[in-house]
Amino acid sequence: MSNITVTDIHSKEKGITAFIKRNPLISMYVIMFSLAWSVMIPQSLYSQGILATQIPEFLEILTGWSPAIASILVSAVIAGRAGVRELLSRFLIWRVGLRWYLVGVFLLAFIILGGIGLHMLFGGAMPVIPAADSPLWQTALVFIAMILFLSLFNMEEVAWRGFALPHLQVRYGALAATLLIAIPEVILHLPLFWIKDSFIRSVGIDWFSAFSIAAVCIYVYVFNKTKGSLIIVTLLHASQNAWSNLLSDNSAGPFHYTVILIWVIVIMLITMTRGRLGYRSLEK
Q1: Among 101, 98, 108, 125, which residue's Cα sits nearest to residue 254?
Q2: How far is residue 45's CA from residue 116's CA, in Å, rounded to a whole number?
């Protein structure tokens, strides 16, 4: 009996390995969603009063790390340590020019402030800006601290841009690859809609999805123009979350104009690059 069991387990392991090698992206998505939703769904159920016990707060780290864990595991199965090194080596692509660091730090701030400006221009009330009552030096320190924290504990870019995008761009091109990444990226966050007072719930799931898809287009463009640098897109993602906390009170009105503004930028990018979103720069 023991010999049969060992043989069966060995065969099963080979089958899983073979499946991952044949279907790396599907495998990464399955692992990522399983890990992230194992925390997010109980959080949502607790918020709705369906689950009586709240899960430990430290497990929330798993939601930010699940994309990186999934992509690293799949890379290890496909190509061993060399695959993991190749994936993480994108963090060493840092000589990309000062302008891309400025884009990473300030682009989303300009878009958020632009959305607030449009909201007021068309008759909306001035929203509460959390950072407005703080000295500039204090805001800068808080921003830097948030960037460091979010860069360490939100490692989504390793999976979306570091792993999935290069695979998909080769096969489908940049624009189709962007959609194939944006859709699961939005779906991954959907359980947060059922958490009371969450950002997604306050602005609307439709507007959140529209913003996320547009943001992915910008991330893809920046990733391609920086020769596949994970440093810059991680900085861009972290700054997006940091500026959202510093410049926004999660009001729906200003956010709707922010979505409109970011889509104007994305349409311009798609038009100017003829749908390539900078992808050819990786081939040079």
Answers
A1: 125
A2: 33
Task: Please tell me the pTM assigned to this model.
Answer: 0.90
Identity (one letter) of the amino acid at 96? Answer: V
**pLDDT tens digits, 136-168:** 999 999 999 999 999 998 899 999 999 999 999
Tens of pLDDT, residues 38-79: 999 999 999 999 988 888 878 888 889 999 999 999 999 999
Per-residue CA distances from 180 to 59, 69, 209, 222 (Å):
28, 20, 14, 17
Name residues whose C-beta falls within 8 Å of residue 237's C-beta, 6 or more positions apart in sequence. Answer: 150, 154, 156, 157, 219
Q: Which strand (E) or helix (H) includes residue 245?
A: helix 230-247
* Residue 16, CA distances (Å) to 25, 37, 136 in order: 14, 21, 53
Asked if 173 and 278 touch (Cβ cutoff 8 Å), the reply is: no
Say if CB 261 and CB 115 are below 8 A apart: yes
Cα 209 to chain centroid distance, Å, stands at: 12
